[in-house]
Design goal:
Elements: H1 2-24, H2 29-32, E1 36-42, E2 46-53, E3 64-70, H3 88-92, H4 94-99, E4 103-107, E5 120-121, E6 129-130, H5 139-154, E7 157-167, H6 169-180, E8 187-191, E9 210-214, H7 223-234, E10 240-244, H8 251-256, H9 261-267
Parallel strand pairs: 3-4, 3-7, 7-8, 9-10
Antiparallel strand pairs: 1-2, 2-4, 5-6
């Protein structure tokens, strides 16, 4: 059953994020040079492409936050460029780099892999059937968590201010990452996704969340984000939750350009 759910999620995510990238891919070739182009080799035989944006003005002995951005299914591949189409321009803007001095990493999920082992089934007129996380995370997510550990060890990163943001498929990966390593993250922003509600108790009182979703998302039902928010509430946590009326798959762009989001994010520190 897990495989069936995961395969369906892969198909839905691919359709969703390809359309999003075409609508909002404003990142110019000149801007991509701001991101260092690197590859992290996980377990010696699994290469994970990633792009790294460094703080604009590093001060001696200072440490900086790290923002991890997980893209959607439409940006999968191995060119180490496409993942920047979803949000790369926002973090590379001079205003944000001046205001929020930080490292920003965009790993790229290889095809045909996935950030998550979670999936869902939705047929017309029926309630959403939720899957559960597998006992072992997908290789891209394992590799990403290992990459974060390496960056903390090698760069001037404040380990109490590591943030993770995910869009669609990346949102599912974000929530699964929290269930695996809740003590790693200071805050999380899942946009247009969902996850295994049974795993919420692992991170509910440890990691502040701000969830976003479009009310009329045609690919990933808004009920998935609502289920996470509702489960957190039953656990005694009141997450930030923004649902865009008449919002579809473009909720990721609206969320990342919300003037409240980045100030909130960079205010968070690991408990």
């Amino acid at each position: 059953m897990i495989r069936r759910f995961s395969f369906l999620l892969y198909l839905l995510g691919g359709l969703a994020l390809s359309a999003t990238g075409q609508s909002f891919g404003q990142f110019s070739p000149a801007d991509t040079t701001l991101y260092l182009k690197k590859t992290f080799v996980f377990r010696r035989d699994y290469p994970l492409p990633y792009r790294l944006l460094e703080p604009l003005e590093k001060e001696s002995k200072a440490k900086y936050p790290l923002v991890v951005v997980l893209h959607g299914a439409g940006e999968k591949g191995d060119n180490n460029e496409r993942q920047l189409l979803s949000g790369g321009d926002i973090f590379a803007s001079l205003d944000n780099r001046l205001r929020f001095q930080s490292y920003v990493v965009f790993p790229q999920c290889p095809k045909p892999d996935n950030w998550t082992t979670f999936g869902f089934l939705k047929n017309p007129g029926e309630e959403i059937q939720l899957g559960t996380y597998a006992k072992r995370a997908s290789e891209p997510l394992q590799a990403t968590l290992a990459l974060i550990d390496r960056l903390i060890a090698d760069e001037r990163i404040d380990k109490n201010r590591v943030y993770i943001i995910g869009m669609a498929m990346g949102s599912f990966g974000t929530l699964e990452a929290l269930s695996l390593r809740p003590g790693l993250f200071a805050a999380a922003v899942p946009i247009g996704g969902g996850g295994d509600t049974a795993a919420c108790d692992k991170y509910a009182k440890k990691v502040p969340l701000w969830l976003f979703h479009g009310e009329n998302d045609p690919i990933i039902p808004v009920g998935l984000s609502r289920a996470i928010a509702n489960r957190l509430q039953t656990l005694g946590v009141e997450p930030q939750y923004t649902e865009y009326e008449n919002g579809g798959q473009q909720s990721w762009y609206r969320a990342l350009t919300d003037e409240r989001l980045l100030p909130w994010l960079f205010d968070q520190k690991r408990k």
